[in-house]
From TrEMBL:
The name this protein goes by in its record: PhnI protein
Protein species of origin: Bilophila wadsworthia (strain 3_1_6)
UniProt GO BP: organic phosphonate metabolic process
InterPro entries linked to this entry: PhnI (IPR008773)
C-alpha cells in the first residue's frame, strides 16, 4: 500500500538543488563538455546508447552528465526521452555483410578469409595505470601527439566475407533461419509474451537481450560457460564498423539510405549436445549499438543458451530459461523495482510490525499458560 506524502515539497526542492551542486563539483574546475564525454568516455556513451535503445551519442552523453556518471540512471533518462519521439515507421534490415569494418577478429580461424583486423582493443594491453593521463592539457611536457587517424574505410579492399561461411558450405554449421513476416514484434510497443521459447520468438528474445544490462548478460554468459548450461562456444567472428540504414519511402517507391550507424556484431559457434539434429555446430548471435564487444559476446552466448528447447537440449541453468533471462535482464525495470523500497512504506511496515508484535504476545501467553 502506498500513501501520499504531504508537506515535503520544500525538502524535495532542496534535495534537487543539492544534487545539482554536487553534480557540478568545484566551480573553479572547467565544466565537462558533451564533446569531451563522446570523445574520451566513448565506451560509456555507447553502453548508455545501446541499453537506452536510442542511437544518439549526443543524448547519451548528455544523460551521463546529468546522471553524474551513473550509467543506469542515464539509461533511464534516455529511455524516458525515447518514449516522447514520434515514430514514422521501421527501417529495413541492415546488411552487416557490407559493414565498413573497423575491427574484425575470429578465434576459430587463424588465416581468416579476408584477414583479421585487430583495431582498437583492450585485449592486448597491460592492466597498468597510465599516470600520464593525469596531465590535464594536451601538449603538456613530455606528452607525445596522437598519430593521424588512418583511413579505415574498407582497409582490406572492400566488404569482408563471413568467417563462418566455410562451415555452412560444408554442412557443419546450421544456416541462419529466415525471419517470418515483414517485421518482428516490437517489444517497446507490445508487451513481452512468455514463454518466448519457440524458434519464431528468437527475434523478440534478441531485442530484449540487446536492451538488457551488460553486467546481467555477462553473468548469464559466464554461468553457462561454468556448467550451468551446455554453452562454451568459440568466437566465430566479431566485427565492429559502420553500416548503412535504409528506409522504404512509400512516396518515392524505393529504398532511401538515411544514414550510417556503428554496430558491434558477434557470432559464436557451439557444439550441439541435443538429439533433434545430426552432429553439427550451432550459432549464437549478438548485435549492439556502438563499440560494445563484451555486451555483443555475452548476448551471443546467452542467445545460444536460450535456444535449448528449440534444439532439444536439457534445461539445467538459469541462462537457458527465457522467463528468467528476459524478465530480469532489463536494468530499468530492475533498478526501479529494487530502488522503490527507499520510498515511504510506512503503512506496510506498521502492518508487519503489528503482526509480529501480536504473534510474540500470543506466544508469550501460550508459554504462561
Amino acid at each position: 500500500m502506498y500513501v501520499a506524502v504531504k508537506g515535503g515539497e520544500k525538502a524535495i526542492s532542496a534535495a534537487h538543488e543539492l544534487l545539482r551542486r554536487e553534480g557540478r563539483g568545484d566551480p573553479s574546475v572547467p565544466d565537462l563538455g558533451i564533446d569531451q564525454l563522446i570523445g574520451q568516455l566513448r565506451l560509456a556513451v555507447d553502453r548508455v546508447m545501446a541499453e537506452g535503445s536510442l542511437y544518439d551519442r549526443d543524448l547519451a552523453a548528455l544523460a551521463i552528465k546529468q546522471a553524474q556518471g551513473d550509467l543506469l540512471e542515464a539509461v533511464f533518462l534516455v529511455r524516458a526521452y525515447r518514449t516522447t519521439l514520434p515514430r514514422f515507421g521501421s527501417s529495413l534490415a541492415v546488411d552487416t555483410s557490407a559493414m565498413r569494418v573497423l575491427r574484425r577478429i575470429s578465434a576459430t580461424w587463424k588465416d581468416l578469409p579476408g584477414g583479421q583486423i585487430l583495431g582498437a582493443t583492450f585485449d592486448y594491453t597491460h592492466r597498468l595505470l597510465d599516470r600520464t593521463l593525469f596531465r590535464a592539457e594536451a601538449g603538456a611536457a613530455g606528452s607525445s601527439p596522437l598519430p593521424v587517424e588512418p583511413d579505415t574505410d574498407f582497409p582490406l579492399g572492400g566488404p569482408l566475407p563471413r568467417a563462418l561461411d566455410a562451415l555452412v558450405a560444408e554442412g557443419l554449421l546450421e544456416r541462419p533461419e529466415p525471419s517470418e513476416g515483414d517485421a518482428c514484434r516490437d517489444i517497446t510497443r507490445h508487451p513481452l509474451e512468455l514463454p518466448a521459447d519457440a524458434p519464431a520468438d528468437r527475434g523478440v528474445r534478441l531485442q530484449a537481450l540487446a536492451r538488457a544490462d551488460e553486467g546481467f548478460l555477462l553473468g548469464m554468459a559466464y554461468s553457462t560457460q561454468r556448467g550451468f548450461g551446455a554453452v562454451h562456444p568459440f568466437t566465430g567472428e566479431l566485427r565492429r564498423g559502420w553500416v548503412e540504414v535504409s528506409f522504404f519511402s512509400e512516396e518515392l517507391g524505393f529504398d532511401v539510405v538515411i544514414g550510417e550507424i556503428e554496430l558491434t556484431e558477434c557470432e559464436t559457434v557451439s557444439r550441439y549436445t541435443g538429439t533433434a539434429r545430426p552432429p553439427c555446430f550451432t550459432r549464437g548471435y549478438g548485435l549492439v549499438f556502438g563499440n560494445n564487444e563484451r555486451k555483443a559476446l555475452s548476448m551471443s552466448i546467452t542467445d545460444r543458451a536460450l535456444r535449448a528447447k528449440e534444439l532439444d537440449e536439457p534445461v539445467v541453468g538459469p541462462a537457458q530459461n527465457p522467463e528468467f533471462v528476459l524478465l530480469h535482464g532489463d536494468n530499468v525495470d530492475a533498478s526501479g523495482f529494487v530502488q522503490h523500497i527507499k520510498l515511504p512504506h510506512y503503512v506496510d511496515f506498521q502492518a508487519d510490525l503489528s503482526l509480529i508484535r501480536g504473534l510474540r504476545a500470543k506466544r508469550q501467553n501460550d508459554k504462561d499458560i
